Task: inverse folding
């Protein structure tokens, strides 16, 4: 659970007087939703069940990034491709472990962000070492330039979210940069042109995020409220509706012991019967009664038993026709 929410929960317990009914039911509903949202299969839940924490996975990914930089610096570029792929998987695995264990926190998010920057420094630094030891050492500036622009992209998002603006998205985020790096290492015959293309795409992403944040800042200076900027525009006369409100109300009433009609309404079977005409139902019933004597197991019974069943079916049909149903 997030630390801030945990602190607010402590303030609620310290208030005098009995708690309202909604506050009593809220922990139960939150616990149920949390248990249902936890993944039960996959490598993340498997590691969480065996006592591995998300911080340990993050630190292991950092060690993997250092090994990747060393392998690339020694000139084993294809081996670096495999290690970059494994490191990328471990970068997504720590979030899965935290979600499965229910240990997501701001401390873990801080550690993950810092380790990503350090891991990028290891990998691109190893690539710069490899290029500096080659025939044209001047190309070693390319990995450092890509690393610098990548840090600008990450800083733009961090600063924008701190100020309350939206800064996600872009053409070359960190995952895309690592994929492009793996492609450049795989096709190392054209390594320098691919690094130049990666640098150009990173500069374009930095400008893209800057313009996105600049538009939001300009709208704030004009006095446009934040909620109006972030909500999507309405389509025609439609407006967003809270679909889960009736279901949540029924759930709370059920937990409190009160009787409340289920929000699903009438069953689909009753609605389907109301839409079928009476003549169609009568014909279907007569056809099933005629075919039932020859197809169902009742054909094996005695003739007296079959006559009795046919009389009951005829009386039931007369009652339905008399009642007009």
Result:
């Amino acid at each position: 659970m997030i630390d801030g929410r945990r602190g607010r929960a402590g303030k609620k317990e310290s208030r005098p007087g009995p708690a309202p009914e909604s506050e009593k039911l809220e922990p139960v509903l939150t616990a149920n939703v949390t248990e249902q949202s936890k993944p039960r299969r996959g490598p993340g839940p498997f590691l969480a069940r065996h006592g591995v924490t998300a911080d340990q996975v993050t630190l292991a990914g950092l060690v993997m990034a250092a090994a990747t930089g060393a392998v690339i610096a020694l000139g084993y570029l294809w081996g670096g491709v495999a290690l970059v792929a494994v490191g990328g998987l471990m970068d997504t695995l720590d979030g899965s472990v935290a979600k499965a264990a229910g240990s997501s926190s701001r401390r873990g998010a801080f550690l993950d962000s810092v380790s990503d920057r350090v891991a990028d420094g290891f990998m691109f630094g190893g690539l710069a070492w490899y290029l500096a030891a080659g025939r044209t050492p001047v190309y070693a500036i390319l990995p450092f330039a890509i690393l610098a622009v990548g840090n600008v992209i990450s800083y733009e998002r961090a600063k924008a979210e701190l100020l309350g603006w939206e800064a996600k998205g872009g053409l070359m985020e960190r995952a895309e940069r690592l994929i492009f790096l793996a492609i450049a290492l795989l096709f190392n015959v054209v390594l320098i042109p691919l690094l130049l293309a990666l640098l150009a795409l990173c500069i374009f992403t930095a400008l893209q995020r800057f313009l996105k944040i600049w538009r939001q800042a300009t709208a704030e200076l004009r006095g446009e409220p934040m909620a109006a900027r972030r909500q999507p525009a309405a389509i025609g006369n439609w407006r967003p509706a809270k679909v889960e409100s009736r279901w949540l109300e029924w759930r709370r009433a059920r937990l409190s012991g009160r009787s409340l009609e289920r929000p699903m309404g009438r069953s689909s079977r009753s609605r389907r019967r109301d839409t079928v005409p009476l003549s169609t139902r009568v014909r279907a019933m007569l056809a099933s009664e005629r075919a039932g004597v020859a197809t169902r197991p009742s054909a094996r019974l005695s003739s007296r038993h079959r006559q009795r069943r046919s009389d009951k079916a005829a009386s039931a049909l007369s009652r339905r026709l008399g009642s007009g149903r």
About this structure: The domain at 27-227 is CATH 1.20.120.1760 (Four Helix Bundle (Hemerythrin (Met), subunit A)). The CA atoms of residues 132 and 140 lie 5 Å apart.
